[in-house]
């Protein structure tokens, strides 16, 4: 790839993402929806200006580093009180791990026509809701507690689990693993090793940052030390155990956020801007990899598969997980509906499709197409409807701290939702 072509790829991608964010700010539409649309426009499905595969092996590196930044930012902001919120996140994580895996496997095979091994890989890839989509939506809408914390916590916990599990299932399909026992051991090793490495790196970074005075002149140095530690930790973890860098990034963010306490706010303001830039660049880049040639063979069976995941599997898992926990019907309804997939899902699908095609596995394109169809439908339908639905259900926190009246006109007005969110989150997503 020529330097000119590489420069054009990044120039078009960043410009398209910036225009999408500007339109989101002007119209009040969810930014993730417009970022995804921008990627489709500039990529294979549209003008053909951006071809992510031109990056070669660099695509995996760039995506990995950017995703680690986003997950670190999520861990830095993760606050789960010791009450029922933490229990809800753990129960939803456990129940969805079982129900969504089995449901996705059966639906992908029965409705979308994937063979059993690829259906299992698909089920693991789309297991988690994406923090890169959920967190900006939660902040934009201004959900009443504890819904925002539950949704953000679920995504941050399940995202690395789903990515690691999908990788191990892929290795099983390719014959690099032998049996379910090796798969289970590999999952525990990568998750446990990643968490330990991330906790150690986060603890070391916290000690260093605590020794620096919190003042404007030290902010650039704090940011540089954080990024240097994060990227070195992520790449080191990936060298030792593939996919262990994702749980390491989350664990490092949680440790830094808890140990710095008051200082975390200043660091978070810097990291959040970079995380938002990563989202602005990655979403159009990965969406540009989608072509209608991958989606069209799936037909209505693929659409039915994704809709069943949204309307049957997710509500069933939420109902079982929140049974007897005191969640109202309105809260359960929103938790059941809001489950968009994000950047990690898209990145894993793109990279796995390349490996499967190189290995000569039939159906790699259908797998990638079904994953991106899941992203398109969940981000599009749920991203556009989440705000009005939350307002109609009376689950939006007003600027004065009181919940909006259920079913009120102001609560259901998307413009009012966005205005309140912008007022509460200056410069946020």
Topology:
Elements: H1 3-27, H2 31-42, H3 58-77, H4 84-110, H5 116-125, H6 131-141, H7 147-173, H8 180-210, H9 219-240, H10 245-260, H11 264-287, H12 292-295, H13 299-321, H14 329-337, H15 343-358, H16 364-392, H17 409-412, H18 414-424
Helix pairs in contact: 1-2, 1-11, 2-11, 3-9, 3-10, 3-11, 3-15, 4-5, 4-7, 4-13, 5-7, 5-16, 6-7, 6-16, 7-8, 7-15, 8-9, 8-10, 9-10, 11-15, 13-14, 13-16, 15-16
Mind telling me which CATH architecture this is?
Answer: Up-down Bundle
Which range best describes the helical content: under 10%, 10-25%, 25-40%, 40-55%, 55-70% or over 70%?
A: over 70%
Task: Please write the string of helix (H) and strand (E) elements.
Answer: HHHHHHHHHHHHHHHHHH
Overall tally of domains: 1
Largest sheet: none
Alpha carbon gyration radius: 21 Å
Top-tier CATH class: Mainly Alpha
Q: How many DSSP-defined strands?
A: 0
Termini separation comes to: 33 Å
CATH third-level topology: Na+/H+ antiporter like fold
Number of helices: 18
Tell me, rounded to a whole number, the average pLDDT.
80
Estimate the global geometry from the Cα principal axes: globular
């Amino acid at each position: 790839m020529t330097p000119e072509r590489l420069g054009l790829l990044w120039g078009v991608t960043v410009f398209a993402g910036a225009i999408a964010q500007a339109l989101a700010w002007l119209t009040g539409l969810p930014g993730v929806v417009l970022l995804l649309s921008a990627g489709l426009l500039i990529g294979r499905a549209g003008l053909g200006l951006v071809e992510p595969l031109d990056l070669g092996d660099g695509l995996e590196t760039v995506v990995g580093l950017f995703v680690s930044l986003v997950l670190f930012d999520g861990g830095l902001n993760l606050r789960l009180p010791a009450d029922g919120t933490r229990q809800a996140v753990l129960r939803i994580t456990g129940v969805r791990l079982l129900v969504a895996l089995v449901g996705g496997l059966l639906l992908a095979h029965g409705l979308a026509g994937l063979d059993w091994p690829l259906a299992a890989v698909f089920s693991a890839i789309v297991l988690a809701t994406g923090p890169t989509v959920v967190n900006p939506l939660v902040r934009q809408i201004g959900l009443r507690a504890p819904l925002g914390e539950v949704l953000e916590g679920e995504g941050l916990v399940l995202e690395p689990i789903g990515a690691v599990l999908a990788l191990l299932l892929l290795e099983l399909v390719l014959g690099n693993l032998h049996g379910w026992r090796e798969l289970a051991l590999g999952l525990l090793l990568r998750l446990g090793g990643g968490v330990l490495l991330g906790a150690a790196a986060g603890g070391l970074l916290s000690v260093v940052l605590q020794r620096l005075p919190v003042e404007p002149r030290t902010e650039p140095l704090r940011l540089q030390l954080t990024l240097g530690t994060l990227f070195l930790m992520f790449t080191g973890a990936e060298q030792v155990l593939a996919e262990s860098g994702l749980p390491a990034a989350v664990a490092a963010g949680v440790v830094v956020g808890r140990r710095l306490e008051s200082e975390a706010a200043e660091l978070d303001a810097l990291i959040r801007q970079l995380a938002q830039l990563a989202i602005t660049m990655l979403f159009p880049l990965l969406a540009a990899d989608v072509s209608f040639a991958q989606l069209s063979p799936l037909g209505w069976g693929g659409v039915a598969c994704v809709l069943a995941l949204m309307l049957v599997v997710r509500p069933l898992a939420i109902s079982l997980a929140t049974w007897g926990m005191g969640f109202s019907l309105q809260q359960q309804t929103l938790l059941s509906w809001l489950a968009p997939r994000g950047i990690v899902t898209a990145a894993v699908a793109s990279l796995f499709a390349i490996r499967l095609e190189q290995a000569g596995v039939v159906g790699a394109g259908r797998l990638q197409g079904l994953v991106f169809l899941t992203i398109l439908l969940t981000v599009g339908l749920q991203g556009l409807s989440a705000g009005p639905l939350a307002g109609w259900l009376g689950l939006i926190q007003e600027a004065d701290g009181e919940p909006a009246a259920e079913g009120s006109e102001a609560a259901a007005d998307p413009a009012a939702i966005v205005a309140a969110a912008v007022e509460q989150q200056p410069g946020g997503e």
